[in-house]
Amino acid sequence: MNEAQRQSYLTAMGLTPWVARTPLPGAAPSPWLDWDEEQDAVPAQTPGANVDTVAAAAETVSTTPETAESTPSLKETLDTPQQTRAVVPAAEPQAPIATPSKGKGLVFTLEAHLGTGTWLLCAQEDSQAPGLGRFEAPLMASLLALFQGRAGRPRRFFCPLTDQPMQAAEAAQALSAFISGLCDQAGGERVLLALPEALNEALFDQPRYQPFEIAGHPALVISSLSEMLEDPASHKKVSWQAMQRHGFEGV
To answer: 55 or 237: which carries more pLDDT confidence?
Structure first.
């Protein structure tokens, strides 16, 4: 079978297909995919052009009863008594999100999904991976279900946009332009970001769990998916409380 079929089968089985972006020493060349639309477009060098114009607008759908039963929401997870709550396996070790340091730029990848009226952007634990990890993805789906959305083909924001390093101020400006483009193209009134503390501090001049505006839209930063997996009792609780307090608890 060709590479396109192979990766389609892997995706259908819940496995994450990997294709090396650069040639690996001693390895055979990575095969090119047979379809263009499945390849993420390389972000343009200008912040305003970073929106993925190839992907169709994110689909906004209502969660069916079957979906709601199979995918517990963040609220249901928090409301479940601790003694009966299912144990979430610890996330597999992955390359951590690069933290800013003096003289170096930021390196991170955000995956964006649209719910009813709300864009949800989550930082990938491994910025070089083709998507969220095996434990991050189900948590993302649960969080998105609060907004009557369904995890589908995401939009992605890559930092840096080019091979040149991006400082925090430049990255924040590019992210604002990216979010503005998302809202203009596919709608959406609010922005919920799940980011680690170090990345939030680098991008925004304020702590997490406090409302602010980005690209003219109400926004809120909560704990990252990896933090919720590592310490659910703490990070899920404080995130859910902040979402309720500031009107980001869903529809």
So the answer is: 237
Q: What are 98's two structure tokens?
A: 């690069």
- The angle formed by the CA atoms of residues 229, 197 and 236, to the nearest 5 degrees, is 35
How much is the CA Rg of the chain, to the nearest whole Å?
18
**How many other C-beta atoms lie within 10 A of the C-beta of residue 76?**
13
**Residues 162 and 45 sit within 8 Å (Cβ to Cβ):** yes
pLDDT at 50 over 50: no
Q: Give yes or no for residue 178 having a pLDDT over 50.
A: yes
Contacts (Cβ under 8 Å, ≥6 apart) of 43? 49, 50, 157, 158, 161, 162
The CA distance from 146 to 129, in Å, is: 26
How far is the first Cα of the chain from the last one, in angstroms, to the nearest whole number? Answer: 44
Question: How is 29-69 classified by DSSP, letter by letter?
Answer: PPPPPS-STTSPPPPPSSGGG-S-SSSPPPP--PPPHHHHH
Distance separating alpha carbons of residues 196 and 222, to the nearest angstrom: 8
Q: What tokens does 75 get?
A: 């609220």
pLDDT (tens digit, 9 = 90+) per residue, 120-160? 999 999 999 988 888 999 999 998 888 887 767 889 999 99
- In DSSP terms, 76 is beta-bridged to none
pTM: 0.61
pLDDT at 168 (0 to 100): 95
54 class by beta-carbon count within 10 Å (0-12 exposed, 13-18 middle, 19+ buried)? exposed
